[in-house]
Amino acid sequence: MAFTDEPVKADVFLIADDVSKTIRKAGIGASITVCFNLQDTAQSRRAYLQTKNALATVRQLYPRKRVFSQHDAAFAESCQRIIAQGEAAVKERTAILDCLVPDDERQSGDMRATLAAFLLDADSSLEKCADLFLLHRNTIKYRLRHISERLGFKIGHLPETMEVYTAAALERILGRK
Q1: Could you tell me the pTM of the whole model?
Q2: Domain range list for the chain
Q3: How confident is the model at residue 99 (pLDDT cuts 50, 70, 90)?
Q4: DSSP 155
Q5: Which CATH number fits domain 98-177: 1.20.5.420, 1.20.5.440, 3.40.47.40, 1.10.10.2840?
Q6: DSSP string, 42-109
């Protein structure tokens, strides 16, 4: 853990990413969790334990990331709690995605995979998502427009997208497509 007594004016996530790359080059497997506004040792301990308890789930949710935030850990922990409540609770939270069924065989899995990648892997960036699929940006844009039509709201519109984000995360954790 590293602490500062002044607000950091640099991009902490860029610094953490550089540290992560250096650690990996040294042959050490590690993840970094960035935490902000920890006021005392009790909050630091709580953040450490939360990260420790949720790390495996965080890695499932964000397999391409090596630098996480305390919010990633908190979100992973909330997903763990939903899963612990049982299949009915999971079904209730993922039902919003039931409308994403393919029109034909070519679309099989495209909508859910695109949605999950866009939200969980690409930070809602068309360019990053297109790179992940090795597709043109307009293809991702088309897919997201089609998904938005099915859902009845534009992906990115809050608070609706929060529900979709959670549903996509639960499906990823449980290995569902």
Answers
A1: 0.86
A2: 1-84, 98-177
A3: very high
A4: T
A5: 1.10.10.2840
A6: HHHHHHHHHHHHHHHHHHHH-TT-SEEEHHHHHHHHHHHHHHHT-HHHHHHHHGGGGG---SSGGGTT
Give, in degrees to the nearest 5, the angle at Cα 9 between 5 and 15.
95
Residues 30-86 have pLDDT tens digits of 888 888 888 889 999 999 999 999 999 999 999 999 899 999 999 999 999 999 999
Structure tokens that stand for 16 in this block: 């953490």
Between 104 and 21, residue with greater pLDDT: 21
